[in-house]
């Protein structure tokens, strides 16, 4: 093993998936067997700082293209000992909040070995005259100086995968091993991809007892997270939790589980109310949403007389050359006269026409000059959760619409702590948010918190579509709460070429004639096909569509899942060969098992405001720069060039086939929908309904008839959420029709006990919490 010290002069390449980096290093002193001043160093590194010194251990190797390099097996940062360099280092980027004066003060008190002193004895921080934030910054910076290679090696010995190790390291840095070994179960609630089985394996190696409260708490976290991530639920019934945790941990005594619940509640990790349990941050998010809705509902906006509204609606009808029905007029009136209102309806029911009517009428009633619509502080603010939905909103209204992330100024480098995020304030005469069913509870909380001076807020969507990918069901919960004016559109007004698709969509949603699915019409048809032949069928359909004159970018394949012969991954491999065949010697870039070529259609998977591209936005590869790591791939998104580094490619995928969830907020001229029994866990009515409504003109259904029937006949998964009850507890319900009152009453149980609930033996065994829940019908075999 060879060792040398070097000063980091540059980072040539880095891959955050596995922390692999290629570094340019200036040699300080000597490197045995090497006679030049600089060398390339490769290996797995955590956070490294330009101009800092590191000691590397490893060996010299010969790369067939780049020659002699140093392959590092381990490394550690060399702490500066000279006063000038130490002051500069302490006041640098690694220690935010510490300036040169504070740095000098630290050196004066602890000497030139200040960093080593603090590293060996962090309690010395208490002797320093620093704010708590400065102390935290100093400690965090010191921890990040630990060797990633050593931490990674230790964590891998516990059987952890590289991506999980990276997440743990990015969260805890030098404290990673200490935090894991202190309580491997607590990390379940903090690191994605790390679950109870992994924690249990580590706990066993550490000698943590089978009935230890840490282990039981880990089981509680896992059950709550399962329901949150798999079903979008924001709470779990206590009786269900007890049995699930008992089964997961193999601990039959409910007393121990109940005590662990109480401990977590006292520690502020969970909330127990009304015989249900939630993670603390989930409960608080719903609570803040309800409070903000109540605040907005108290806003004062001018109440226009019915005659005046009727007059401007009449003018609007003449201007737009349309005719509103009574329900649509009611929606416009609600938006004009109430600080907060909701509009829901399926395709062809006139949501877009109503939005245009609201904007036209408000402009007339408030005498808003046209020039102000394009000012820096516009009166009309429009937004949607995805780039494609925002673009379509702009096109149909003539008013600029933004993604919600861009509207709020949310960036990918924002802190995860809401208190540290500075959001853009929203003012204006009216804010209209479209595609509300896609908005999850965390984004909705941030949106509501940023609304400051807006007089009217209108939420628009289709309550019957798939709920958000993230947890909660905020749009559905607001409708259920019945505390705001809600307009439900049911009449189909669109009678164009796509009307048969609209009729089919409403038939699916209302669970009517399933035979419509398998009829051949002008706009849609069904092609029966077993999973093994899906690829062959898709190939024939796509080739035929191109031959009939469909542009390649107008054809969109949708599927429910990524895996299987009918999954996204397999279909993208097939469609890439059909729609963008690789020519001899053509360039390509490979990342996360995908090949990207010039001409490929691509999908952005995460919001990236810095590049001004957003989740669900579709673009096209127009360039490949093999020698530029920061501009490896160049794509066109809405007539703008966007450059991707290799790290950025983790958020990019091919888009010839995409999931139904990712297609929300978009429409395509030709949709080819694939459903087979390989997707049986996903087959629900709202999934099929959402997919069908993505087709603007033409639709081809491909797969097993049994799968389409199963989807039609299986109601959507109604998420268990607490927002509706929290809204009702803060504001009165509006007067409604009797049948609507009964419907809402069935969805909202009145709060009986607003205080925290402590689990006792009496509660568990009184029958209030049934220990046999989910066990009915199980018969024990007789023992011989």
Automatic annotation (TrEMBL):
One of its GO terms (biological process) is DNA recombination. One of its GO terms (cellular component) is exodeoxyribonuclease V complex. HAMAP family: RecD2. It comes from Lactobacillus mulieris. Keywords: ATP-binding, DNA-binding, Helicase, Hydrolase, Isomerase, Nucleotide-binding. The gene is recD2. This is ATP-dependent RecD2 DNA helicase. It catalyses: ATP + H2O = ADP + phosphate + H(+). Its EC number is 5.6.2.3. GO terms for molecular function: 5'-3' DNA helicase activity; ATP binding; DNA binding; hydrolase activity; single-stranded DNA helicase activity. The lineage of its organism: Bacteria, Bacillati, Bacillota, Bacilli, Lactobacillales. Residues 337-497 form the AAA+ ATPase domain. ATP binds at residues 348-352.
């Amino acid at each position: 093993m060879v060792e040398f010290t070097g000063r980091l002069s540059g980072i040539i390449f880095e891959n955050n998936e596995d922390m692999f980096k290629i570094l340019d290093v200036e040699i300080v002193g000597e490197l045995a067997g090497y006679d030049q001043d600089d060398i390339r160093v490769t290996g797995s590194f955590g956070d490294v700082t330009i101009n800092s010194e590191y000691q590397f251990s490893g060996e010299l190797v010969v790369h067939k293209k780049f020659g002699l390099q140093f392959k590092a097996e381990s490394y550690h940062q060399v702490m500066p000992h000279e006063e000038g360099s130490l002051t500069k280092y302490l006041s640098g980027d690694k220690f935010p909040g510490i300036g040169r004066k504070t740095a000098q003060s630290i050196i004066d008190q602890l000497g030139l070995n200040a960093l080593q002193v603090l590293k060996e004895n962090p309690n010395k921080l208490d002797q320093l005259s620093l704010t708590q934030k400065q102390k935290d910054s100093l400690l965090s910076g010191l921890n990040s100086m630990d060797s990633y290679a050593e931490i990674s090696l230790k964590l891998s010995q516990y059987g952890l995968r590289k991506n999980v190790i990276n997440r743990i390291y990015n969260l805890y840095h030098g404290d990673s091993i200490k935090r894991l070994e202190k309580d491997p179960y607590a990390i379940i609630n903090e690191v994605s991809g790390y679950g109870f089985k992994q924690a249990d394996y580590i706990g066993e190696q550490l000698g943590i007892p089978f009935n230890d409260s840490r282990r039981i708490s880990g089981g509680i976290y896992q059950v709550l997270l399962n329901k949150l991530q798999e079903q979008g639920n924001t709470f779990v019934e206590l009786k269900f939790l007890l049995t699930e945790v008992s089964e997961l941990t193999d601990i039959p005594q409910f007393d121990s589980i109940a005590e662990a619940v109480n401990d977590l509640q006292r520690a502020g990790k969970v909330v127990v109310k009304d015989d249900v349990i939630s993670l603390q941050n989930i409960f608080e998010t719903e609570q803040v949403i309800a409070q903000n809705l109540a605040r907005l509902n108290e806003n004062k906006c001018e109440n226009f007389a019915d005659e005046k509204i009727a007059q401007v609606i009449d003018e609007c009808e003449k201007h737009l050359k349309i005719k509103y029905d009574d329900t649509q007029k009611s929606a416009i009136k609600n938006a004009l006269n109430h600080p907060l209102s909701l509009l829901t309806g399926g395709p062809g029911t006139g949501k877009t026409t109503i939005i245009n009517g609201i904007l036209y009428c408000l402009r007339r009633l408030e005498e808003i000059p046209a020039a102000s619509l394009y000012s820096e502080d516009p009166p009309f603010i429009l937004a949607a959760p995805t780039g494609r939905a925002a673009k379509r909103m702009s096109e149909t209204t003539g008013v600029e619409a933004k993604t919600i992330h861009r509207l709020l100024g949310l960036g990918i480098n924002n802190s995860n702590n809401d208190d540290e995020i500075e959001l853009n304030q929203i003012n204006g005469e009216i804010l209209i948010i479209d595609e509300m069913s896609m908005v999850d509870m965390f984004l909705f909380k941030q949106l509501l918190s940023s609304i400051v001076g807006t007089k009217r807020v209108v939420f628009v969507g289709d309550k019957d579509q798939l709920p958000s990918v993230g947890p909660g069901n905020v749009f559905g919960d607001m409708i259920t709460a019945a505390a705001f004016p809600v307009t439900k559109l049911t009449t189909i007004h669109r009678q164009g070429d796509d009307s048969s698709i609209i009729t089919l969509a409403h038939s699916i949603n209302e669970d009517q004639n399933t035979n419509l699915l398998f009829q051949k019409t002008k706009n849609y048809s069904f092609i029966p096909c077993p999973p093994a032949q899906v690829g062959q069928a898709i190939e024939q359909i796509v080739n035929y569509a191109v031959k009939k004159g469909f542009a390649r970018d107008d054809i969109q394949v949708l599927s429910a899942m990524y895996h299987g012969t009918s999954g996204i991954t397999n279909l993208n491999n097939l469609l890439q060969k059909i729609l963008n065949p690789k020519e001899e010697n053509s360039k390509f870039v490979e990342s996360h098992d995908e090949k990207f070529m010039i001409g490929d259609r691509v999908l952005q998977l995460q919001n990236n405001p810095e590049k001004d591209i957003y989740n669900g936005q579709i673009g096209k590869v127009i360039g490949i720069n093999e020698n530029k790591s920061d501009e490896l791939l160049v794509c066109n998104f809405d007539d703008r060039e966007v450059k991707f580094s290799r790290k950025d490619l983790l958020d990019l995928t091919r888009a010839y086939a995409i999931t139904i969830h990712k297609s929300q907020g978009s429409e395509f001229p030709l949709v080819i929908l694939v459903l087979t029994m390989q997707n049986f866990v996903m087959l629900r009515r709202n999934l099929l309904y959402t997919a069908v409504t993505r087709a603007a003109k033409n639709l081809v259904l491909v797969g097993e008839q049994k799968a389409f029937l199963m989807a039609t006949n299986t109601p959507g998964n109604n998420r268990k959420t607490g927002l509706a009850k929290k809204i009702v507890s803060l504001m009165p319900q509006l007067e409604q029709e009797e049948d609507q009152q009964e419907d809402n009453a069935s969805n909202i149980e009145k709060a009986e006990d607003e205080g925290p609930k402590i689990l006792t033996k009496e509660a568990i065994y009184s029958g209030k919490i049934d220990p046999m829940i989910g066990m009915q019908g199980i018969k024990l075999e007789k023992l011989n």
